Amino acid sequence: ADASDASSGDATRAGKSAVIFGFFAASPRELGFIEKQYARNGFTDVVVVPSVISRVARPSGWYKVFRDNAKLGRAHPTLARHFDVAHCMSGGFLNLYLTRGAGVPLSCDTLLLDSTPILPKPAAFTTFARQFVRDAGLGPLVSLFPRLLHLTLVRLRWAVTAVRLRAQHRVARWTGREGANPYRDIVTSWLRMSSAAAMSGGTVRSYDTISEHCERVLFGRAPAAPAPRRAIFLHNPSDPYLSNPDVLATVEHARNLGLETHVKEVSTSHVQTIFRTPALVFDDCLATDA
Q1: Would you state the pLDDT for residue 7?
Q2: DSSP E strand stretches across 14-169
Q3: How far is residue 113's CA from residue 252's CA, in Å, rounded to a whole number?
Q4: Residue from 244, 239, 238, 231 nearest 286 by CA
């Protein structure tokens, strides 16, 4: 898009700030394009946070991101602040959770949830992974690999990872490798909660526990940050990367937590709205009277 595509609301948004939690596998060029779209639409303070697959798309990565954020806490150099808009794209939903949940005081007026949530549970990640492989041109391979078998393997892998992470964390505490980290306890309690379902295979403890915690952290008060003023869900109900029942349930949970919540349905593909029709983002979702 060229400069003529800039929103008519530029003047009213001048000087505003945004943090963008990017989607899985987003290239630097794609993230740069999104940042430029915000700049063209009057946002003068834009922070982009990549969602690296190895760190945000697997439980072992969640632990590392949560631990790193907890160590920084209120001293986080770029995210310990207020933004007018927090834009989470696809896996960026989990990235923001691992930031606010770890005690980083990131707050916002508008939480824009774009082609998400991808909830922290095996079924959601299996759905996402299978479509990702299809779009990579390996559809026939997916057809030969039954979803139930795929889901079972994901659950098994997460269970093994949960046991390993608990053991590693326990050793780190015993040996003092974590140092004088004031947020050590928040990491320990989060790891116990987030790994409980995986260790039982989702039988004794449901994956709903971590999903609901994720929603409370994002839609309510986090350990060091207030709730957003509003949330906007921007999604395509036919998006094969998402479970539409998960989206609808998350919308309902946000409303039950007392958050002003809006839903904008689109026809664009997964995370493509800001690339194809940016006016829907800036003139519709982020209009000053949203």
Answers
A1: 43
A2: 16-21, 43-49, 82-89, 107-114
A3: 14
A4: 231
